[in-house]
User: Fold Carboxypeptidase from Anditalea andensis.
Amino acid sequence: MKKCFLFVVCLVTMTSIALGQGRKIEVESAVSSTHTVTIKGNRVPYRATAGTQPVWDEAGEPIASLFYTYYERTDISDMANRPLVISFNGGPGSASIWMHIAYTGPVLLNMDDEGNPTQPYGTRANPHSILDVADIVYVDPVNTGYSRMLDKDGDRKKFFGVNADIEYLSDWVNTFVTRQNRWASPKYLIGESYGTTRVAGMVNQLQNSHWMYFNGVILVSPTTLGIDRSGPVAAANYLPYYAATAWYHNALDKSLQNRDLEDLLPEVETFTINEFIPAMVKGGFIEEDRKRELARQISKYSGLSEKVIMEHNLAVPTNFFWKELLRDQGLTIGRLDSRYRGIDKTGTGDRPDFDPALTAWNHAFAPAMNHYVRNSLKFETDLTYNLFGPVHPWDRSGDRTGDNLRQAMAQNPYLHVMIQSGYFDGGTDYFNAKYSMWQMDPSGKLQDRLDWKGYRSGHMMYLRAEDLATSNEDIRQFILKATPAKGAPARY
Assistant:
């Protein structure tokens, strides 16, 4: 698809911090350029602004600089009704590159239709971008992308933890929305993987500490969100994902393999809820005959042998599953997307040597992003673009983000939530995402504002061409649904 550019470049740099050896961090900067993209057959002109905006301490002194890329449709006159999407990825320690140049933004990196890297590296137009219905800003947290702490010996606890991350990023968003004059706009947060922990906490923080109210939160491949699932639940909840993956690799018996995936999975989910979890409650006191009966059924659904299931007392760890499922073929399967296959040094062991999915993605994304930032966005720096940055140790204590999100929904009748999951994601599996949604709403009174969508791909479901179109359309419809009619009151 042809993509046209007309660059209007303006660079403003207010403050910089020297790093030595000629490198420096631009505390505040912005460079803008104009472009067009065709989305769903319609020409969409837009302005792209790549820049940095500071994080301040309590005394008003800058302590970090965050890199962002902001896309605004330029043929819109009524900005008060124009939705704004604020986008984060996860890690923790991951840049916002993944959804930026592979999902919702106006450009796509060069990959094949199943998400495998191709050359030449670079980007092309994204005909499925949500830029037709919403402006988007992609934000890189501290030490990811081109974002940095200004003092390498500064207090890392201000940034690197569940609640510290939520607090400083909420403050940053408050400043960005104010500077861009977007307070009147319907607003949406989207996060992927650990980014779901981030945005689930941020929507409550922004609502209660900054009085900024949102219309929607989109959770892409969500984490546990601080919702307890220890014991029998933790042991059993992965079985539906195992069944999906075994189905993909043609590892089930014909009675199951010949069924459509979305016909098969409800049966496995029902077995997990009604039989597997109750049996695991009894632990080692489960009757031997019942244990063997369950092992036969788990074997049927997972593609693993009854022998290894019994050896694991029915609770097969994910690492072992990734190593074991195709062991007889000399192959492993991916963690973040179990469609990908890998080759280990030896066939023995209880876990793969590496994640073949992540390796393939890094191969494609890093060259494309570095080329795109400099050649299309015209943002120049000698800093390394950190796909994954140094953010450890990460303080995971006090994670109540699932309940934070529930509270924000209860307080804000406008607020809707959509969850997107890939059936073949073994890092943040689809059934645990459903479980989180169920547990987040114990009263059952939020069901009309909670929605879950599944896709036949992995952690980054949008890397599969078919799901790129479907998942973007699901976001597009979610935004349109969650943006109320003019004058519609927020009330129960």
Summary: The chain is about 35% helix and 20% strand. Confidence is low (pLDDT under 50) at residues 1-14. The first strand starts at residue 5 and ends at 6. The CA atoms of residues 2 and 287 lie 65 Å apart.
